[in-house]
């Protein structure tokens, strides 16, 4: 008897993810760059983390302490880097699990130091600097003064380096100028501190600078998740040519097939999410409904494999797809396959209603 297939489901190809990780490791290590494999997209999935470590990533990066705890108990070897600035309330627990913290304020660094002292343990910190994206970090003009004044009060929280985040909030791309600014701050700090610092300046979007040989010398740590798990670069708006994109595939089941008008009949208000939907009158169209919705995916991030399909809209639990231009005749029970954008995959990994199936090539 064949095992029951449950839909919707994600097919996660661990071989492909491992190949992607190996390729990024090769590129980074050839330039003397430490690679942090970021698993936050997958909720810190142990199988994905294990695949990354098997491929040679130097440590695992996670934004949520709960995921690091799960990885630790699953036997995944560290070191672990906590990507999100720790909440003060979670630092006592985090000290026991985390090897490297990203921080952006003196108060947080001092609390890490205090908790580390209680356990007679040393931990590393990377002080984040905002070079323009407007997410976390001390503003670059104030960085040297703030970091030096903070480090002087630390005994168990060791400043291992500085870092920045680009692309995730403001969409700012890495350039020679903003990366160079980070390197100059590093040099100033090193001259005052008397030892070398890590510069954690790279993420998936920064891989393009490695490809083009435009990354300034001195950037020596990358934090890469999307590129490894999906083979894409959302901020740079590209498929990364030397990585695989068949790593994560979504499958959803058809529950209705019908011809309907392309514009609703009646007075239009807002949809369930407070949006006012816009419709183009294209006459009578053939549509299917899939048993998946906003609670599971980001509809505009779904990329159908089947030619001629167009995702129209979704409610919490229903996805409407126009199939008029497709040569395939869909019926209830048919399965439709999609690639996903980063935001879409993030929601699918998070949804308990999407089955996760792991395969090897």
TrEMBL record:
Q: Which cofactor does it need?
A: pyridoxal 5'-phosphate
One GO cellular-component annotation of the UniProt record comes to:
cytosol
Q: Name one Pfam family in it.
A: Ala_racemase_N
Q: Name one GO molecular function term.
A: alanine racemase activity
Give the keywords, sorted: Isomerase, Pyridoxal phosphate
Q: Which residues form the signal peptide?
A: none
The cross-references to InterPro entries, in alphabetical order and at most eight, read:
Ala_racemase, Ala_racemase_N, PLP-binding_barrel
What domain of life does the UniProt record list for this protein's source? Bacteria
Task: Tell me which residues make up the Alanine racemase N-terminal domain.
Answer: 12-227
Q: What is the protein name given in its UniProt record?
A: Alanine/ornithine racemase family PLP-dependent enzyme
Instruction: Give the species.
Output: Fervidobacterium islandicum
Q: What lineage, starting at the top, does this entry show?
A: Bacteria, Thermotogati, Thermotogota, Thermotogae, Thermotogales
């Amino acid at each position: 008897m064949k095992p029951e297939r449950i839909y919707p489901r994600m097919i996660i190809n661990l071989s492909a993810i491992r190949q992607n990780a190996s390729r990024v490791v090769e590129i980074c290590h050839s330039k003397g760059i430490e690679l942090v494999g970021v698993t936050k997209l997958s909720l810190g999935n142990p199988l994905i983390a294990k695949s990354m470590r098997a491929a040679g990533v130097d440590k695992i990066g996670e934004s949520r302490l709960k995921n690091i705890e799960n990885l630790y108990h699953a036997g995944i070897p560290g070191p672990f880097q906590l990507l999100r600035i720790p909440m003060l309330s979670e630092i006592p627990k985090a000290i026991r699990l985390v090897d490297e913290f990203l921080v952006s304020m003196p108060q947080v660094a001092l609390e890490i130091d205090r908790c580390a002292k209680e356990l007679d343990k040393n931990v590393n910190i990377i002080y984040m600097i905002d070079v323009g994206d407007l997410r976390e970090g001390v503003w670059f003009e104030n960085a040297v003064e703030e970091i030096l004044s903070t480090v002087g009060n630390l005994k168990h929280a060791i400043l291992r380096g500085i870092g920045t985040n680009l692309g995730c909030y403001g969409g700012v791309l890495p350039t020679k100028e903003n990366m160079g600014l980070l390197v100059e701050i590093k040099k100033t700090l090193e001259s005052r501190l008397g030892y070398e610092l890590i510069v954690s300046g790279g993420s998936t979007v920064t891989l393009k600078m490695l490809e083009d040989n435009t990354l300034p010398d001195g950037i020596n740590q990358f934090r890469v998740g999307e590129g490894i798990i999906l083979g894409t670069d959302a901020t740079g708006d590209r498929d990364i040519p030397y990585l695989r994109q068949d790593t994560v595939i979504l499958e959803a089941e058809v529950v209705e097939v019908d011809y309907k008008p392309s514009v609703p009949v009646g007075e239009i208000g807002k949809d369930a999410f407070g949006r006012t939907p816009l419709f183009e009158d294209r006459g009578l169209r053939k549509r299917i409904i899939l048993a998946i919705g906003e609670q599971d995916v980001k509809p505009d991030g779904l990329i159908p494999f089947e030619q001629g399909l167009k995702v129209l809209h979704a409610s919490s639990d229903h996805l409407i797809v126009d199939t008029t231009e497709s040569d395939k005749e869909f019926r209830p029970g048919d399965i439709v396959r999609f690639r996903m954008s980063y935001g879409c995959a993030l929601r699918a990994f998070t949804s308990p209603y999407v089955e996760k199936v792991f395969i090897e090539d």
